[in-house]
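Entry 12.
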Amino acid sequence: MYLQGIGDIRYASGREFHLQLQATLTDHRVNGMVGSYGIIDANTHILYETIPAPIISVLKMQADLMPVSPIDWDLPEALRPNLEAAQLPTENLLGWRRKERLSVDQRVTLEAGGITANDVFPRNIANIPIFQDLLKSVEDHIENSKCKVIATFPTSTTGSLAQVSFISRSPDDSEPEPLRNIAAKLGRTNSYTQAVSGIASSSAIMRYRIQRRTNHKIDSICYRSAAQAIPQPWLQNVNQIFHTSKFQNSMDEQIITRSRTEFEET
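Predicted 3D structure (tokens):
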């Protein structure tokens, strides 16, 4: 359902907006694998925080398969930020989660699909690591499931108007768990014009567009740092994709009225 809402839209004024990704995967290799945006630094961290890099998901599966490894696992040196203050990733690094205990079936499925705790050898298609055996295994599990999937993948390039509204960070947000992704934290849904309740609700739930940094918060960065010492260059582009998108600029130009619908979420 989330993916079905992403795509081109025609706004109420008749103007059309077309989806365009802001990044391309590089051929930078980490442990022999592609699927990254290169080393995480002041320029690339925003990419890892807003567009999933396939290699992070592969590394997460490998961490889960490790017999002995810390719950808060780190990235390989070839991806890790070269910063003295950098410590460990947060969930703002899309695909990163703490190590989890796998069931026997989960472990067998991953290993049979070509994922091991050590070296892996996926196919390289457009700098995306592809594990064909794993994809086939997942397909078989879905096919044999009692809960049939009606539409596994969206087939239309048209998206939802829920992409128009955006989330701003709430100043009332408390921080019981600093590792959480900002998308899971308290926020307010804002609309450029009066939004019908269904679209406003979808925007609040799906959170397609988020002003990642408001009220001087620094919790949207993908790495923890000692004494909250986030380098200033890293903070300057936190909202880059939100502020520089053609969609955002065009909407700012044609605002006649603005209304705010607030959804307080825990």
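Annotation: Strands lie at 9-10, 16-17, 86-89, 123-125, 128-130, 166-169, 187-191, 223-225, 259-260. Residues 45-143 form one domain.
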